[in-house]
Design a protein that fits this description.
Blueprint (H helix, E strand, L loop, with lengths): L14 H12 L7 H9 L12 H5 L3 H11 L3 E13 L2 E5 L9 E5 L13 E10 L2 H7 L6 H4 L6 E10 L3 H6 L8 E13 L2 E4 L3 E4 L16 E10 L2 H8 L5 H11 L3 E10 L5
Parallel strand pairs: 3-5, 8-10
Antiparallel strand pairs: 1-2, 1-4, 2-3, 4-5, 6-7, 6-9, 7-8, 9-10
Amino acid sequence: MSSRSTKGGSLRSAKGAFALAAIAIALPMGYLNAQEVTRTINKNNIIAQADRRTPQERRNVTSEELADKFKALVGKRVTVRGRFLEKIGNNTFTIADEEFLGVEPILIVNLSGNPLDLPSNDIEVQATGVVRSFSLAEIAKRYNQQFDRATYAQYENDPVIIARSVAPAPEPEEITSNPSPYYNRRLAVPGNVQRVYSPNAFVLENNLLVLNPYPKQAARPRVTQGERVVATGVLDRLVIADIEREYGFTLDAGIRKQLEADYADRPVLIVDNVYPSAVDE
């Protein structure tokens, strides 16, 4: 069955979504989250409470939110994570949130310069880019792309993300149970922080070690135990001397000794960014 057969009601007939989008446009999204907008509508009150989320959390939306409110997000940079559904072309594919496979698939146009290289088709994908309403002629001209009209006509006016970054987004358990397919790949790994050694070293659930050579450059410089984050980087085997030399940083001697005893030659995610996750368990 085609992924498009799950489409159901069109976004264009979703009056509630349009009403929410109208409120979001009248009151800038940077100051309102979805819960606060709903509360405002229900109370017929246009006074909004301040959004306490960080800018990264405001941009990091779930694919269900994107499908429901994409008109309010057109032109904005977002990050979404969802299950890979179908390859459409050489640099296009669709995803849908794992918990909401009944919503419309989200079309991704991958302009990162790197093909999406998945170890298998049953893991999630993370994509970061600008939200557009898909117009075949406009997108083709604006981004110098070629689209087959017969293939892409069904996506006209649907949400599309023009992605400058795409990566497999496996769970920590998928990595630690079978790391081989993921070595030397760039990954975006969501997970709960299980233990914190220092700003440079922490452990995600299922005992996945994370090393952050430059924590001050991350969206989340210091993580806390129990926090849910997304860590982006490359998976390698833990050889601390080699990693310190390659990335130009030095771990505390005590932490170094403990990590070498507990994680030597096991998988380690060497990250360039860590930020709060918008997806709850």
